[in-house]
Amino acid sequence: MKTVAEPIPALLPEPAAGPDDAVRRLARNRSVALGGAILALIVLMAILAPVLGTTDPARVEPVLRNKRPGAVASIRNADGSQSTRTHWMGTDSLGRDVYSRVTYGARVSLLIGASVALISTVIGLVIGVFAGYLRWLDGVVMRVMDGLMSIPAILLAIGLVSLSRAGLRTVIIAIVIPEVPRVVRLVRSVVLSIREEPYVEAAVALGARTPALLLRHVLPNTLAPLIVQATFVCASAILVEAILSFLGVGIPPETPTWGNIMAEGRALFRILPHNILFPGIFLAATVLAVNILGDGLRDMLDPRIRNRL
Amino acid sequence: MPAYIGRRLLATIPVMAVVAVVVFMLLRLTTGDPAAIIAGDNATSQDVAAIRTKLGLDRPIAQQFVIWIGNVVRGDLGESFFFKKQVSQLIVERVEPTLALATCTLLLAVAMAVPLGVLAAWRRGTWIDRAVMGLSVLGFSVPVFVIGYLLIYLVAIQLGWLPVQGYQRLAEGFGGFIERLILPSITLAIVLVALIARITRASVLEVLNADHVRTARAKGLGEAAVLVRHVLRNAAVPIVTVIGLGVALLIGGVVVTESVYAIPGLGRLTVDAVLARDYPTVQAVILLFSVVYVMINLVVDLSYTLLDPRIRY
Q1: B129: exposed, middle or buried (C-beta count within 10 Å: 0-12, 13-18, 19+)?
Q2: Which of A212, A238, B114, B148: disulfide with A113, CB 3.0–4.6 Å?
């Protein structure tokens, strides 16, 4: 419902805000600062994995199977000398160091989260803009999207990974497809409301062509809600990947991912809960950080969608 | 009103059609001969040929779809080569645990989330509000299987209060049945509680400032009566909507929870079928879950007029 007073601010030009100002505003928001800080730590951990005292996460040491967290083991080096190594998070049933696997596992989770967020946002943006702007396309596209959204996301992802050999690319595609409709819906709703705005009508009256109109007026308006949506897509993608790996249908088990470490730890969970506990904590912390960041961004960038999920 | 119900029913047709096409295409998109895939690894060439004729795989794809959907509508979901029986029979055998788990979870989630959400809105800005909202973000972020194993470890293994895993049919006694459902239901309910509590809070906040609430308070009604009769009733539509949408999360969670707790339901069946590349079963379960989800949301939409008599279509 539009009130009389509402269109006026929209007609006024926004006060120009420099990039410094934006950064300062971002840092002042407590949620953004907290979520961003935790996420930055985890990203750092993923990048610096090789120098954080890790060993080869895939190295199997049958002698060192099923060690409890904190166990000290002596290893014979290639030159015959002995050295000791502390397994802070214990070892798994193949004798792989859980700390190393958890540290390297951050790479997969972050990679999946970022790429799914990026790919589904781009695809969703393109489809959503066209659906919102071209009336004849709208009905068909939205019915297809409604149908896709009627298949619970995890089930659709499981069905899609079962189609071909599981690998990083298959998993990314399988998670992107269920996420796209949600982005399309969001973009379409923004486009539909923008195209009724007086300044868009003015641009049309002044003879702006459709591509220019979309690029200069419609696209910038979708940016804020899209960034927010992308963080939630990222969080859900990290969770879905972990679930797929955990169920044994995701990325091959030798790759260290948090879901795979937990899947491996299931059999001996009663005696050695650390194989599920440690990756679980990191997984939850990462998703939590992304969610907190998203909540903060939403409150800042678009107060209108504050109550939307 | 009847016109609205009719329109709403019509609107589910294209949605179901898209679902059917997607599920149908799942198998056709695999590389290789669908008949050989359906028949499984140990099939003879006669088996494969029989399936090819039955599904009409030598005909155009549109015709194949019609044959497939015709079989599905008649309840013929094909045969599982892994479990060696009709998929429809397999589903009937596995439906009880899933239905029990889903019902318990939904009841538990609503019973916890709605009061929490109302409380948070009522005490807006206090530590109670912040605690509820903080826990809700946490509930969204901790994966369901991590919660599951944590609960098993603490409640079942360390404290020994409840059985660790497994399922007991209702017919074998209610005590054992409910005992084994408590932990899985709590596990699965947490994400739903997070979702529903958030929406309840937002929805109640919008109503709390309405004139009629002030009037209700002014005429001396107790706070509890105001909240339940005047606020919650008016905030009901978004809450019920999100419960309907939450069923998608519930279904996804069922798949994981049943694996964690070794419950022989439809979720477990899905995972076993995917691992065995038993495509007829995978297709059937995805189709079934999607139909259930669409139907629940249809009922939710139709319930709006009952919940809020002001809504007229």
Answers
A1: middle
A2: A238
CB pairs under 8 A between A and B: 144
Considering only CA atoms, which of A125, A101, A103, A119 is closest in space to residue A234?
Answer: A119
Residue A275: its chain B contacts at CB < 8 A? none
Alpha carbon distance A113, A240 (integer Å): 10
As a whole number of angstroms, the distance between CA A203 and CA A221 comes to: 15
Find, in chain A, the residue whose alpha carbon is nearest to that of B238.
A308
The CA distances from residue B286 to A158, B89, B279, B295, in Å, are: 9, 16, 10, 14
B279 contacts A309? CB cut-off 8 A: no
- Beta-strand pair B79-80/A71-76: unpaired
* Closest listed residue to residue B244, CA positions, set B177, B293, B304, B175: B293
Query: Measured between alpha carbons, how far is A113 from A111 in angstroms, rounded to an integer?
Result: 6
- Which tens digit of pLDDT belongs to each residue from A159-176? 888 777 678 888 999 899
For residue B141, give the nearest of A243, A277, A284 by CB distance. A284
Distance (Å) from the alpha carbon of B243 to chain A's nearest alpha carbon: 13
CB hemisphere CA count around A206 (13 angstroms):
9
The pTM of this model reads: 0.85
Closest-CA distance, A196 to chain B, in angstroms, reads 25
pLDDT computed for residue B185 by the predictor: 92
Q: Which residues on chain A are in Cβ contact (under 8 Å) with B22?
A: 147-148, 151, 156
Report how far residue B286's alpha carbon sits from residue B304's, in angstroms, rounded to the nearest whole number. Answer: 28
In the DSSP assignment, the letter for residue A266 is S
Q: Which residue shows structure tokens 């859900």?
A: A236
Q: Would you state the pLDDT for residue A231?
A: 92
Q: Are strands A71-76 and A82-87 parallel, antiparallel or unpaired?
A: antiparallel
* Cβ neighbourhood burial of A198 (10 Å; 0-12, 13-18, 19+): exposed
**Residue A62 pLDDT grade (very low, low, confident, very high; cuts 50, 70, 90):** low
Mutant choice from B29, B137, B155, B257 vs A, greatest count of A C-beta within 10 A: B137
Q: Which amino acid does the sequence have at B3?
A: A
